[in-house]
Amino acid sequence: MRRSVESAAAVVLFRRLHVHVPGLPDSDRYVAHDVIQFEDAWVTGSSPEIVAFELAPLRELFQRCEEEGLVFGFIHNHPAGPAQFSDMDEENERTLIKALRNRNGPDITFVAMLWADGQWLARTRKGGCPEIAVPVRHTLVLGERITLYGYKESSDEHTEVQARQAAAFGKPFVDMLQSLRIGVAGNGGTGSPFATLGARGGIGELVLLDKDPLAASNLNRVRGLMKADVGFVKSDTLKNFIEGIGLSVKVASIASDVDTDPVAVDALASCDVIVGCTDDFAGRELMNAALYAYAQPLIDIGLGGKVDDGLDGHPYLRYHYGRISTILPEQGQCLFCQGVIKDIWIQAQLARRENPDITAEELKDRYLEDGGTDAPGVGPFTSASADFAVATLFDLIKPFRRFPPEVRRDMFFVDFVKMEIHSHETVGNPDCSYCRAHEFLLLKESCRLNRPFLGKRDDFC
Q1: Would you say 183 and 268 are in contact if contact means Cβ atoms under 8 Å apart?
Q2: pLDDT score for 191
Q3: pTM for the whole thing?
């Protein structure tokens, strides 16, 4: 880098996820794929406010954008200049986009980012109308937590419902929640309480994914759904309930399985954070891959337990727990290494999809086994687990938890029988393609998650 008193610059190559989710505003995601720091030889002049540079060294990066379907981004700082884009920045961006358009054609997209006064500012331009700069909704940085920059500050009218949260965490926290799009896969005993409490908490956009109809047996634990809703798709009825609360949240419903429907995969890819609320192993496996490919935190909720017969002839809970797993692209063990999913469980589930009458003996003959533990749907336990997951989301945005040494940030259990919170050690796989080798991190896709049966999105073309 050049001396800190002078402006420094770099190129960021972004992957653009251009997905339309019905019911939500169009909102592209730009995921940073590679960072190339400007070499000293590229810079022709620099001051605390501006940086001037040669175009010739950048043409190789223009070509790479065209060949790999990436978006060119120019980032720089103002060490002692204005905390906003300047006239010189405007001139630099016009120069870059003109050169980029001449090389790659008029359909290009361009991203500009500025680091000034401890904040990221960002905007985009299109090759067809380079004079128009569109501010981004927010810039999200992932590490051990979520850090948001450039989010919109809310009006006083919005803060009345969130006054107590603002008193606890500050008004910026409320505004950051309002800026986020959260995907909730599974809208039953854990998904419905997460979504309803999240909406009341101030989440700006929710994507609800669940194709199953509501059953009468679900009514003891779902939130927002009534007896009159039995037989109707959970995601649709939950969307109607949340919209009926009358808050500012925007809601989309996707009545699909997350591991088989391209529409559902695309809807997940459009989200800032994914919350897994399904006991479907194949769905969890897809979300486990997507969090690395699309740079998303995953909060996965699970329940387990053991029911025995008591001496009085009635069942009793030997144990029952809720699990909260929190995985970020470069932090925490993946769901495989946590022991939440296994290949033989996934294959057994897929075998049952093909043949619902397959027996346990037939699965055993194929070296497969059903996974998981008993988890009776007890309302206070499912809801409490979801509440812990909402608090986990809050902690990612505005850290407040103080974990004792024996409790892991990436996975902990709430024991509803022993009334304990604990974590267990998992050996994991030192060669894991997800959380160790990072083979799925910012995956270069030829089709959705490189799974041909899911097909290609328009932005691959």
Answers
A1: yes
A2: 97
A3: 0.94
